[in-house]
TrEMBL record, chains A, B:
Stated name of the protein: Dihydroxyacetone kinase subunit DhaK
Family matches, as NCBIfam families: dhaK1
Annotated SUPFAM superfamilies: DAK1/DegV-like
GO molecular function: phosphoenolpyruvate-glycerone phosphotransferase activity
Domain named DhaK: residues: 7-326
Taxonomy, superkingdom: Bacteria
PANTHER family: TRIOKINASE/FMN CYCLASE, TRIOKINASE_FMN CYCLASE
Transmembrane regions listed in the UniProt entry: none
Keyword Kinase applies: yes
Name of the gene: dhaK
Enzyme class: transferase
Length: 328, 328
C-alpha cells in the first residue's frame, strides 16, 4: 500500500486536524465524539447535519459552512458514524428550529442516524439520499446514496439559510432526491488503509460499471472502451430513470472518485453535455470535480438533477464551505 | 492505459470544450490558436497571462478570472504552448496597461514566452517561477517552476486587479517567487496519453523524492517511509532554503499531483503544520488540494511562502476563478 500515512489507526484523526486547521475560518473540529461544525452559527434556522464513513472527502466536512451543512459526522474510513456523534453535533448546532439529517442510503448510516433521531429531544427529520440508479428500484435495501448527495446538501442548505422551516426543508430535500439520478464507472479499485490492498482485482482491459463509493465491484464488469462509449452507457441509465422532457432545465454533475484528473473529468463533462444536448435538455448548471470520492479509486460518475426555478435559485444562492464556494 | 479518453489526439480539445462550458460564467475559450480568457474584461489594468503544457489542471486555465489571470495558454499535454497562442491571448486581454507573463521555468516555456514577448507590440514583462528546491540553485537550466506558481498568480493577480502598474506587478511577482520554495514526492508515475504507459517504473516499496510535474523521476529514489518521515524530508529542504526567522508569517500549501485523495493531503498538511509550528513559524494561511497536477500521478508537494503584510492582503483579496474562489 502506497499512501501518505503513518498509521491506519490514526489517519482519520490526523487528517481531520489538518482539515480543521486549513479551514479554521469556516469550521471547528470537535473530538470525542468527532464532528465538524460551522464556526459561525445563527439561531432560529433549521440545522442541517450529514455524515457517513470517511474516505469520500470533501464529502461531508468539506460542505460545512454558510449556505450548506451546519455539521458533519465523519465515521472511520467507509464506516458509519455512531449515534453519539450525531447527537453531539445536533446539540452543538441546533438553533431552535429543528434538525434535518441528510443520510446516504447505507444500512449502517440509516440505522445509526435513525437511532440518533429517536434519542434527540426536539423536532427533527431526515432526508434519505438514494440516487444511484445502477441498482434496481426494488433492490432489497434500496438504492445507494452517492454523488447526488452534494446537490441535496447545497439546495437544502440554501433553503435553511433562507429561513425555510423544518417541514419545508424536508419536503424540498425529498423533491431534490426524486429529481436526481447518478451512475458511476470505476477504472481501478481503491485501497482501504486498514486492509492494505485493493478491495477488488481488475484487469488492465476491464472496467466496473455501476459502482458505489466504497470500493465495491459494480453491477457488471465490462471491457475498457472509449470515454464516449462509457458516457453513453451510464448516461443512458440516468436518462431512462428520469425521462426528462425536451427543454427540461438540468444540473449536470461529473464527479471524480479520487484519482481521476480534471483533464479527464472535463472531457467526460463535454461528452455528457453532448449526450443530453442531443436529447433536447437545457443544461443550465455544471459541477465538475472530485466531490464524492472513494479514496484513491480511478473513475467517475454522472449525476443529473432536474431543476425547477426554486431549485435553481437555491443552487445559485451564496455558499461558503471548504469545497464549494460562490457568491460570498 | 486506463483513462476516460477517446483519442489522445483530441483529448485536450474536448477537455477544454468541457471546461469552458462548465465555467461559462467566468471564461471564454478561443481556438486556433487555443487560449482561455476572462469573459468580463476591464480596460486600464495590467493583464496577466500564463500558460504551459496541459496535464497540470486546474493550472492554468482554472485560475483565469477576477483577481487572478486574464488568460491562459494551454499547450498539448506536457508540451509548451506556442508563441502564437500567447500573442493571440495578449491581443485579446491587453487593456492598455501592459501584459505580464507568468512563466514556469522550463526551457520550452521560457523560449516560447520570450519569443512572444519580443513579437508583442506594447509594454510587457515576465515573471519566471522557479520554486522547486529539489534542484540546486546553480542547476544549468535553473530550478523548475512548480506548485508555487499558483501563489504567484494569486498575489500578483490581486495586485493587477487593484491597479498596480506593470513595473509594480513584475517586481511583486519576483518578490513572491523569491519568498517561495516547493518540493514534492511521487508515489507513482503518471501516464501521458500519447505514450500510453507510465513514464517511469517504480517498485511497490519505492518513492521518488524531489520530482517535477512532468512525470520525470525525482532527484533520488527512496524507500517508502511514513508520511511523517516524507514530510520531514521535503520540509527540511524548504526550511534550509528559506531559512525563515521565528514568528515569520507564512502561507503553507499542500498540493496533490492528481491521484492523491484529500484525506491524505490533509494529513500531510497537519504534519507539515506541526513541523513548522515547532520551528516557530506563524502559519497564517493554508491551501490544500490538487492545484498543480501531473496527470494521474500519486504524490504531493509542500510549498512555503514567506508573507509580508502586502502579500497577505493580496492573498486575501477577492478571487473568482474555476478553481480558486473567495470573497466574491
Amino acid at each position: 500500500m502506497k499512501k501518505f500515512i503513518d498509521n491506519p489507526a490514526t489517519l482519520l484523526e490526523t487528517s481531520l486536524q489538518g482539515f480543521a486547521k486549513a479551514h479554521a475560518d469556516i469550521v471547528e473540529l470537535h473530538t470525542e465524539p468527532n464532528f465538524v461544525c460551522r464556526k459561525q452559527r445563527k439561531k432560529g434556522r433549521v440545522a442541517l447535519i450529514s455524515g457517513g464513513g470517511s474516505g469520500h472527502e470533501p464529502l461531508h466536512a468539506g460542505f460545512v459552512g454558510y449556505g450548506m451543512l451546519d455539521a458533519a459526522c465523519p465515521g472511520q474510513i467507509f464506516t458509519s458514524p455512531t449515534p453519539d456523534q450525531m447527537l453531539a453535533a445536533a446539540e452543538a448546532v441546533d438553533g431552535g428550529a429543528g434538525v434535518l439529517f441528510i443520510v446516504k442510503n447505507y444500512a449502517g448510516d440509516v440505522m445509526n442516524f435513525e437511532m440518533a433521531a429517536e434519542m434527540l429531544v426536539g423536532p427533527n427529520a431526515s432526508v434519505l439520499v438514494n440516487d444511484d440508479v445502477s441498482l434496481p428500484k426494488d433492490h432489497p435495501i434500496g438504492r445507494r446514496g452517492v454523488a447526488g448527495t452534494v446537490i441535496v446538501e447545497k439546495i437544502v442548505g440554501a433553503a435553511a439559510e433562507q429561513g425555510y422551516d423544518l417541514a419545508a426543508c424536508k419536503s424540498l430535500g425529498d423533491r431534490v432526491v426524486g429529481a436526481t439520478a447518478s451512475m458511476g464507472i470505476a477504472l481501478s479499485s481503491c485501497t482501504v488503509p486498514a486492509l492494505g490492498r485493493p478491495t477488488f482485482e481488475i484487469a488492465e482491459d476491464e472496467i466496473e460499471i455501476g459502482v458505489g463509493i466504497h470500493g465495491e465491484r459494480g453491477r457488471e464488469t465490462g471491457k475498457l472502451v472509449t470515454a464516449s462509449e462509457m458516457v453513453e452507457q451510464i448516461a443512458g441509465h440516468i436518462q431512462e430513470e428520469l425521462n426528462p422532457g425536451a427543454g427540461q432545465a438540468v444540473l449536470l454533475h461529473v464527479n471524480g472518485f479520487g484519482a481521476t484528473p480534471l483533464v479527464e473529468l472535463h472531457l467526460v463533462y463535454e461528452l455528457a453535455w453532448q449526450y443530453w444536448q442531443k436529447r433536447g435538455l437545457n443544461i443550465q448548471r455544471a459541477l465538475v470535480g472530485s466531490f464524492t470520492t472513494s479514496l484513491d479509486m480511478a473513475g467517475c460518475s454522472l449525476t443529473l438533477t432536474l431543476l425547477d426555478e426554486e431549485m435553481l435559485r437555491l443552487w445559485d444562492a451564496p455558499v461558503n464551505t471548504a469545497a464549494l464556494r460562490w457568491g460570498c
